[in-house]
Amino acid sequence: MNRKSLSRALTGLILVTLASCAPASPRQDRTVTVFAAASLTDALTEIAADYERNEGAAVRLSFGASGAVARQIQAGAPADVVVLADPEWMDRLGAAGRLTDRRVDLVRNDLVVIAPTGTARLADPFSTLAGDDRVAIGDPESVPAGAYARTWLQTSGRWDAVKDRLVFGTDVRAVRAFVSRGEAALGVVYRSDVVGRTDLRIVLEPPAAEQPAIVYPAAKIVGGGREAQAFLDYLGTPAAAAVFRRHGFEPAI
Fold first, then answer.
1. What is the CATH number of domain 22-109+215-251?
2. Per-residue model confidence as pLDDT tens digits over 157-211
3. What is the C-alpha to C-alpha distance for residues 206 and 152, in angstroms, rounded to an integer?
4. Which residue among 37, 183, 187, 225 is least crowded, i.e. fewest CB within 10 A of its CB?
5. Domain boundaries 111-210, corresponding CATH code
6. Is 37 helix (H, G, I), strand (E, B) or coil?
7. 115, 188 contact by CB (below 8 A)
């Protein structure tokens, strides 16, 4: 190899080495992956967009039933932050060693009974169920809203009348879809699931004494990236709280 060719080869090698050592762009280096309960889809999508715009970081969101989300993380899914609709599922992740001590209760919610728009609001809509009318709730084994609904139906004395009419959704969004499509006469979901919907209406609000304590805890995952704590902190800011309220959630404290 002559001197000119050798010089070109060395220059190319130096450029490749420098490129490999160059720091990642701020956006690539500042990415947070968030796994969250399906009922938070609208609120967290808006909050993530605000965070990206204001903080210059990238937020990746993955939604599902809290039980399914917790199982994915327990199995090693690459998440930085998790937000669930049930403290018990979060406790299980903690017991499995998947969480740091960075955990906070973010917001709370209430149960409501929904029906298609146009359905009359009666003192007890369950009393009008007839024929093959169905009642939709989340699968109690993996969907916190379903477990809360089952408990409320039992404690309010309605369980025996509806247990043979139940259809189970994979998350609260699926329950809402059952009712919206007319496949169920009634559904039990969170209040936040009805915000902004014109195809559904609330036909019954369980009184405060019957409402379960529905709290959404958030936590940092062990091994989460450096942006995890920053995003977790942002979820507790007044700006994020305003978005949560707009979507039907209330502060946890």
1. 3.40.190.10
2. 999 999 999 999 999 999 999 999 999 999 999 999 999 999 999 999 999 999 9
3. 9
4. 183
5. 3.40.190.10
6. strand
7. no
